[in-house]
Amino acid sequence: MINSTGNTGTAKIIGWYKDRHPTWQLSNGNTPLLPETQQTIERYHSLIIEKLEKEFGEITITYGFTSLELYKLVQKLSPQHTAPNLDQHAGYELNSRNNRICKRDGLACDFLVKGYENDMGTIAKYIVRHLPFDRLYFYGRNKPLHVSIGPENSQFIQYLLPSKKSGKRYPRKRYNKDNYLDAEFKEYS
C-alpha cells in the first residue's frame, strides 16, 4: 500500500469521495496500491490541478481516483454515469481477478473550478490550449469537466450532453485539439 497522506494536493484527488459521499467508510481510505497509480496521481496534480488553481483558483474534485474498494462501492450504490473500464479513474489499479480495472493508462478526475461553476467552457478551452491531456469530456457549461492524462495524451475531446427527453448523456460532437478551438467557445475568445 502506498502512503499518500503527505501531499495535500494528491489527498484531494484521493479523498474526493468524502465530500460527495460522507457516509461511505473505506477501510483503505481509497489509497492506491500500485506505485504506478501513485506516481500518476502526483503527475496529474502537477500537470492539471496545480496549473489550473494557479490560473483560476480553487478546484473541487467531484470524482477522482477510485481504488478497488471504492470502485466496488460505487458500482453497488451509485453506478449511473460510470464506465470504469474506460474512464481512467482507477489509474493502474487491479480488480479482484488481478486484471486492470481500466484498460487505458493514466488517470482522470472530474472537477469544477470555483467561480466558473456556470462557465466550465472557459476552463475547457484553457486546458485545450495550454495543458497536456488525454481525454476531455464536456458535459455542459455548468457541469464538472472530465479530464484525463495518459502516456499518449491523445487530446481527444468529447461532448456528452444530456437528452432533453431522458436526461441520459449521449456522445455528441468529437474533436481534437486543432478543430476544437476553431469550432467551439467562440464567445470565450
The total count of strands amounts to: 6
> What's the Cα radius of gyration?
16 Å
Which strands sit side by side, in order, in the main sheet?
Answer: 1-2-4-3-5-6
Overall mean pLDDT score? 86
From the spread of the alpha carbons, the general shape counts as globular
Query: What profile does the largest beta sheet have?
Result: 6 strands, mixed
Q: Which structural category fits the helices and strands?
A: alpha+beta
Count of helical regions: 6
Helix and strand succession?
HHHEHEHEEEEH
Low-confidence stretches: 1-5, 185-189
Strand content: 15-25%
**Cα-to-Cα separation, first versus last residue:** 45 Å
Helix content: 25-40%
Topology:
Elements: H1 8-15, H2 17-20, H3 35-56, E1 59-63, H4 68-77, E2 107-113, H5 120-130, E3 135-138, E4 145-149, E5 156-162, E6 169-175, H6 177-183
Parallel strand pairs: 3-5
Antiparallel strand pairs: 1-2, 2-4, 3-4, 5-6
Helix pairs in contact: 1-3
Report what the structure shows.
This protein is an alpha+beta fold and about 190 residues long. The chain is about 35% helix and about 20% strand. It has helices spanning about 10-15, 15-20, 35-55, 70-75, 120-130, 175-185, and strands at about 60-65, 105-115, 135-140, 145-150, 155-160, 170-175. The chain has a six-stranded mixed β-sheet with strand order 1-2-4-3-5-6. Helix 1 packs across helix 3 (about 35-55). The termini are far apart.
